[in-house]
Every structure is written in structure tokens, then in C-alpha cells.
Design brief:
about 150 residues; Signal recognition particle alu RNA binding heterodimer, srp9/1; alpha/beta; 8 strands; 4-stranded mixed sheet
Amino acid sequence: MSDAREVQVTFDCGDPAALSAFWADVLRYELDPPPPGFDSWVEALTAWGVPESEHNSRSAVSDPAGAGPRLFFQRVPEGKAAKNRVHLDVRAAPGLTGEERMAALEIEAERLVALGATRVRRFEPDQFTAGHIWLEDPEGNEFCLD
């Protein structure tokens, strides 16, 4: 038996619904379903007496296969102020090298930009790295296609 802990990655953000939908598309995750007995989160939140102004205060997405960490998005009043100290590396070209790898990363980067990501910089393969592309999500959180 392993003593390893499960991990949830939490994003502070301005629009949890939009950012969780973006990351669900990026990672091919699914929005967490409403609790049993409810057809939607709006129905559940309304039944629990949560004010409508708070319905978009949090959201979450999960790996349908159960392998990856859950991502949780919570609304905070302040915007992003500086570079992230931690970021996600999205493994978009596992097992590929050289130009084949970079071509696969470029195709994925185009898809993510169409979803709302911003492309920042391409890092070419060299003696130390296999190459990657740095992007930002719609709220400016840095991540890499690796």
C-alpha cells in the first residue's frame, strides 16, 4: 500500500465557470457533476439557498479516468499580480522528439489559442530540453505544452 497523497490543484480566479470550462477542454477533463438528486448545479445551489450572485464562486473539473488530479477554481476579488510560482506542464507530445514533437506541440497550441489561451513563447529543443511552448490561460496563468 502506498502512502502517497492525492493532490487537488486550486486556481484563484475571477470567473470559475469560464476557467474550469477552458481547463476541461485543455485536459479532456469533465466538469464535476451536481450532487445526487439534482439535475444541475444551479438547481442544487438554489435548493441550498445559495444566493445567485454566488453561483459562480467555485467550480471543479476531474479526469474521467481518475488518473489526474482534480482542478478546483475559486473566485477571489483580486486579479493576478505576478508570475505563477507553480504552473502546469500539459504533456501534449509524449514519446515524440525533435521536429515531430514540436509539430505536435504547435498543433495543440493552435487548438488551445482557439479556446482562449495566449501564446507567449516557443522554446526549441536543445541539449538540455526536448522543447516546449509557453502559454497563458484566459486569466493569465502560465502553463507549458511539454
